[in-house]
Amino acid sequence: MEIVMSEVWLMLPVFLPVLLGLIFPFIKCLNNRQRRIGYIGTSLVLCGVLSLAVICNLGQDASFTLWSMTEELTITFRVDGMSKVFAVLTTFVWVTVGFYAFGYMKHEEEEEKFYRYYLIVYGVLLGLDFSANLISMYLFYEMMTLSSLPLVLHSRTKEAVMAGLKYLFYSIAGAFLSLLAIFFFYQYGTTMEFTAGGVLDMAKVAGNEQVLLLVIFLAIVGFGCKAGMFPLHAWLPTAHPVAPSPASAVLSGIITKAGVLAIIRVVFYIVGADFIRGTWVQYAWIGLSLFTVFMGSMLAYLEPLLKKRLAYSSVSQVSYVLFGLSVLHPVGALGALLHVVFHSLIKNTLFLTAGSIIEQTGCKRVDELTGIGKKMPGTIWCLTLAGLALVGVPPLSGFVSKWYLASGALQAEIGFLGWLGPVVLLISALLTAGYLFPITMRGFLPGNSEVRYERCEVPKIMLVPTILLTLGAVLLGIFASPLTEALNKLIETFL
Question: Which residues contact 130 (CB under 8 A, 6 or more apart)?
Fold first, then answer.
């Protein structure tokens, strides 16, 4: 009976949001907006509480198999340390941004469709987090692309359709590269189950090392598409500006982390870090990550559109995480996992503040925001604190993660890349200050260019979630020790 109940508990967080999203349009009693909002809000809270209950109450490595295609190919869910980190983060952000959307989407067309897919994607993401093997992860990875596509296409303008197609084509290209690698992992591995340290059968690998290294690199590039890593990054700055701001927030803060999780699973739970340490794959991965960090920051610095600037910023910041993983050192991995959490909170805050600004003022360009701090003080203070954290000003969260990223690079035995990495991170931080701080400075200190200020702060339903995310970005940096200790214990299991 205990096993059966564990299976039921593991299934509910994944499939309940999907079911609630699918039946949403067919519930006849939801005939006005207030009832629909009540349904969505209750669904988000219920599913969030349920997912946290599963994470907290089920034992380590609790699992169940939903479907067996063959003896080796199964759809299996498992709760382990890595899935807990990503599932908790996904739940907190998804529920918080969902309540912000109640205010933002009020004036948008086809609001019900947005909420329907928003619920579905939440369940799919939890399925990805709880996947116990490569086949399960790949299935939910593809479902994530298809179910999140309507969020990009929501406005159905020509620009949105083209952005959606770009998002789809890039995602499919990346997924195909990864699928090719999965075939090889099946051939040369002892199992498809995620196992800390890797599952390669070295007797089978002998003589085929170079071929396997090539497909590992293709898997990193393929899954790196969702994380916005060069060369498959271009979908991100195209899709974010056209999507509603709540969708832009979760695309940047959570869905990009799905690519990070997939790379973690492949490198540390299928291949094993020792197999690629010191090879051309590691150095190429480091090189692509650092190039993306610099390129994204430079493009963000030059971009005049607010949401597109933040999108290029995500291209850069998520590759901070990939760089920390690529050095294959415990300290670097700690910095990477910390930045997964911190960047999600920070970037969701920034996109929500951008959405609030656009919703209240109609201003989409950075040069139109002179005096905005006097008009929307709460929103701009959240943007300011999140910007300080993203730059890495101590003692805020971004400083903590970047400290460990730089320290890990210097301690890892990766030659000149050990000092080049911190240099690139520092240059990127300066560029980040260059594209975020002027918004605050011109917003609060407009000089003589603005003589009259009319308050236009967003409603509390939009401001409170933004403040909660801001507090998370600030307080997790000031009180980082508990999270750091927990992540260190997790890293000891696979690196």
Answer: 10, 13, 14, 77, 78, 79, 83, 87
Q: What are phi and psi of 200, to 5 degrees?
A: -65, 140
Q: What are phi and psi of 122, to 5 degrees?
A: -60, -45
262 pLDDT more than 70: yes
**At 118, which amino acid appears?**
Y
Joined tokens for residue 370: 């002179």
Q: Give the mean pLDDT of 305-325.
A: 96
φ, ψ for residue 67 (rounded to 5)?
-155, 135
- Quick one: average pLDDT of 348-377? 91
Distance of CA 55 to the CA centre of its chain: 19
> Residue 220 pLDDT more than 60?
yes
- Per residue in 335-357, pLDDT tens? 999 999 999 999 999 999 999 99
Residue-wise pLDDT for 75-119, tens only, equals 999 999 999 999 999 999 999 999 999 999 988 888 899 999 999
Strand partners, 73: none
Phi-psi region of 451 (alpha: psi -120 to 50; beta: other; left: phi over 0): alpha
pLDDT above 90 for 399: yes
CA 303 – CA 367 distance, rounded (Å): 11
| Dist CA 333 CA 326 (whole Å) | 8
- Global pTM reads 0.95
Q: Which amino acid is at 477?
A: G
Are 85 and 340 within 8 A, CB to CB? yes
Cβ atoms of 420 and 294 closer than 8 Å: no
From 91, 79, 82, 93, select the one nearest 130 (Cα to Cα): 79
Q: Which DSSP string corresponds to 302-342? A: H--BHHHHHHHHHHHHHHHHHHHHHTT-HHHHHHHHHHHHH
